[in-house]
């Protein structure tokens, strides 16, 4: 079992991150973001069990974390680890904070999520733009289309 406060201490000490509370309708939803790219690496929510596919309407604290899809398959069997709430279930998991999962393991999963999201959002190398055929020159036959393509390839 781990608390919100213990998570906040962990991410503050390790990454210098403070929780962000972006929604007025859900004031207890805390988002943990990278300082540089502002991408989420965790979301701490309070949600009723039935919304997580569990029995009952008791509200529980949980954390959404990005995870390697292969690891998700392995973790599915652990008590307290569920398919992600409101996130892509192929790449995210939800961990119940009151589950028997040791705090160290939750912190390891937070660190993994941090590392998986660190490079997201950075600009990628622009794609090479190839010259287009002039639209004013239109080959009339299939044979001439083929020869035009061949000529363009030879020019490159």
From TrEMBL:
This is MmcQ/YjbR family DNA-binding protein. Transmembrane segments: none annotated. Coiled coil: none annotated. PANTHER family: CYTOPLASMIC PROTEIN, CYTOPLASMIC PROTEIN-RELATED. Residues 121-156 are annotated as: Disordered. The lineage of its organism: Archaea, Methanobacteriati, Methanobacteriota, Stenosarchaea group, Methanomicrobia. Pfam families: YjbR (PF04237).
């Amino acid at each position: 079992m781990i608390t919100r406060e213990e998570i906040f201490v962990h991410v503050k000490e390790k990454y210098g991150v403070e929780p962000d509370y972006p929604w007025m309708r859900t004031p207890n939803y805390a988002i943990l973001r990278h300082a540089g790219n502002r991408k989420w690496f965790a979301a701490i929510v309070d949600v009723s069990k039935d919304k997580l596919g569990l029995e009952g309407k008791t509200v529980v604290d949980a954390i959404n974390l990005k995870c390697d899809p292969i690891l998700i398959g392995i973790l599915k069997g652990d008590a307290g680890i569920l398919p992600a709430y409101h996130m892509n279930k192929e790449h995210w998991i939800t961990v119940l904070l009151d589950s028997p999962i040791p705090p160290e393991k939750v912190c390891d999963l937070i660190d993994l999520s941090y590392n998986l999201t660190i490079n997201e959002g950075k600009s990628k190398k622009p794609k090479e733009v190839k010259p287009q055929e002039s639209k004013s020159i239109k080959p009339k036959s299939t044979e001439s289309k083929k020869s035009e393509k061949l000529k363009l390839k030879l020019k490159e």
